[in-house]
Design goal:
mainly alpha; single chain
């Protein structure tokens, strides 16, 4: 009897010790990895302006975040979906998702206070409440003052949201150089922030007939070519057409119009 009991104990110990690979932190990350994979796919599709696919990918990511009970990632994905709905002027859907993220923050302490405020600022801008939107973005820039990357992003967003902003070109050029330096050192955390700054730098310089508008367009084209974001490359060529028409340079305007049109068959086929 004692021998039988000893064999049972040994059997249990063997099976327990061999039930999985050694895991010093006792932490399973399968759902986390799946969440991040599908969120990254959604981000890519959103940047490509394939919004239905982006929403579908975010939904899949949200499913795995929920299975893991990762409150912050659940909220982030809800807010990413809300971003798309705001861009589509589907404000009721966006508000519902923002409220869900607020509930995660209020009742379970998910770290979502600043991301929620960012979405509320975006919604305010989309609904024409420009001063409120700009003030919120600039407050976020201050809140992230120890995070240069995000601080720059929200400062630029504050400019974009304002209906009467004054362009401080020297400061904005410094911001762009700062982000470029982070990228060169491999320290840039969010490439979308650099994309936002690079494109708006070109957009605003063309709009204001700035002396460096052509250089800004060339920088933007090079940036989006590296990322293979064809839709944004096309947008940059559209800026070039606008610039050269404004300058009365019909030859260059005609050339860049042909380059602009050359992207259309490929974008339609995607």
């Amino acid at each position: 009897m004692i021998r039988s009991l000893a064999l049972v104990v040994v059997f249990v110990l063997i099976n327990t010790s061999c039930s999985s690979a050694p895991e010093k932190q006792y932490r399973v990350t399968k759902y986390l990895e799946l969440t991040n994979t599908w969120m990254a796919r959604g981000d890519r599709k959103r940047q490509e302006e394939k919004l239905d696919l982006a929403l579908s990918n975010y939904d899949t990511g949200l499913k795995y975040a929920n299975l893991r009970n990762d409150l912050t990632l659940m909220g982030v994905l809800q807010l990413k979906k809300a971003t798309i709905y705001i861009n589509q002027s589907r404000f009721e859907f966006a508000l519902k998702l923002i409220e869900q993220a607020k509930a995660l923050h209020k009742y379970e302490g998910a770290e979502l206070k600043l991301p929620i405020r960012a979405l509320e600022a975006k919604l305010a801008h989309a609904q024409g409440r420009f001063k409120e939107a700009s003030a919120s973005a600039l407050a976020l820039s201050e809140a992230y003052k120890d995070d240069n990357e995000r601080s720059i992003y929200y400062r630029w967003l504050g400019v974009m949201y304002s209906s009467d902003s004054i362009m401080l070109w020297e400061e904005m050029d410094r911001d762009l150089r700062s982000l470029d330096n982070l990228k060169a050192r491999g320290e840039l955390e969010n490439i979308e922030i650099l994309s936002f700054v690079v494109y708006n730098n070109a957009l605003w310089k063309v709009r204001d007939k700035h002396a460096q508008a052509q250089i800004a367009i060339e920088q933007a084209i090079a940036h989006f070519s590296e990322l293979e974001l064809t839709n944004k490359i096309r947008d940059c060529y559209a800026l070039a057409v606008k610039l050269y028409k404004a300058q009365g340079n019909e030859d260059k305007a005609a050339y860049f119009l042909k380059r602009l049109d050359s992207f259309n068959p490929y974008l339609k086929a995607q």
